[in-house]
Amino acid sequence: MKDHKNSKTRAIFIAGWQGHCPRCRQGRMFRTWLKIQDSCETCGLDYRFATPDDGPAFFSLCFVAFPLLFFVVWLQVVFELPVPLVFAIAVPLMAIGCLLPLRPIKGWLVASQYLNQSVEAGTEKLWSDMHARENAEKRDEADS
Fold it and tell me: Are 37 and 24 in contact (CB under 8 A)?
């Protein structure tokens, strides 16, 4: 059991970090920097299940921005740097530090949703009904 859990965790991190499909590990997960494909070009996995929403930004802020903020405040207090210099150091450092991990974090969240078969509690039927209507409307438009 432990080996299965470790292999699942490893698969989540590898798929997320590399931006590959969590099912086949071959196709690309992302169309652009943060935009997820509609489906995997290799295995056809439909990415509509993927709802990372604001998760990547939250984790980026928690694990990057807050520690950097404490570091910048420490720089200011210990070295008594001029405020414009502190801003010149802090703004690019925080921008780059928060933007760079967004894609791997989003990939990890999508891979985790797929491999753990996550769905929102109580909304699976509603979600499928909504998408069934969408797909029916698209079919009707295509038939016209």
Answer: no
| Domain limits for position 24 | 2-143
> Do the Cβ atoms of 108 and 12 come closer than 8 Å?
yes
Measured CA angle at 107 (ends 6, 110), to 5 deg: 80
In this prediction the pTM is 0.75
pLDDT at 141 (0 to 100): 75
The mean per-residue pLDDT over the stretch 87-106 comes to 94
CA atoms within 13 A of residue 29's CA, in its CB half-sphere: 28
Please provide residue 28's backbone torsions phi and psi, each rounded to the nearest 5 degrees: -85, 140
The number of folded domains in the chain is 1
Tell me phi and psi for residue 30, to 5 degrees: -110, 140
